[in-house]
Amino acid sequence: MKEYIAVSACLLGLDTKYQGGNNYNIKIEELIKDKTVLPICPEVFGGLSIPRDPSEEREDGKLYSKRGIDVTKEFNLGAINTLKFLETYNCKTVVLKNGSPSCGNYSYDGTFTNTKINRMGVTARLLKEKGYNLIYID
């Protein structure tokens, strides 16, 4: 049976970041060696565009773009679609981009002041709850 590993697409060098760029990280190469890689981007899986406004989660659990647009529905849909995608391939290990409102082990406080807080992203929370092995890359 193939061993699958899911990786945040931006870490693989795919231009899926909110501003259209990527977060390629050489550390990924060792993690994915001898595995079949499944690129994921929960924000895209939820219907958000590339590029898109940056978004942050507020204290009330709602996510807003920097322009004040409520994108909670898209982030939640992206988390659910990511979970379904992983289940399709029986993939249990996921490498996520830290600091992302979807994927991060930490995120930002919703004020767009670059203030980090100890709150997992929407998709990361769901995957942790479902027992996935999560690896975070800054």
Between the first and last Cα atoms, what is the distance in angstroms? Answer: 30 Å
**What proportion of the residues form beta strands (DSSP E)?**
15-25%
Structural class: alpha/beta
In round numbers, the mean pLDDT is 96
Number of helices: 4
Number of strands: 8
Largest sheet: 4 strands, parallel
Question: Could you characterize what this model shows?
Answer:
This protein is of the alpha/beta class. It is built from four helices and eight strands; from the N terminus they run βαβαββαβββαβ. It has helices at about 25-30, 40-45, 70-90, 120-130; strands spanning about 5-10, 35-40, 55, 65, 95, 105-110, 115, 135. It has a four-stranded parallel β-sheet with strand order 2-1-5-8. The chain has a two-stranded antiparallel ribbon with strand order 3-4. Strands 6-7 form a two-stranded antiparallel ribbon. Helix 3 crosses helix 4. The longest helix has 17 residues, at about 70-90.
Summarize the model shown.
The chain has 138 residues and is of the alpha/beta class.
Outline the secondary-structure elements.
Elements lengths: L3 E5 L18 H6 L3 E5 L1 H4 L9 E3 L5 E3 L6 H17 L4 E5 L9 E2 L7 E2 L4 H8 L3 E5 L1
Parallel strand pairs: 1-2, 1-5, 5-8
Antiparallel strand pairs: 3-4, 6-7
Helix pairs in contact: 3-4
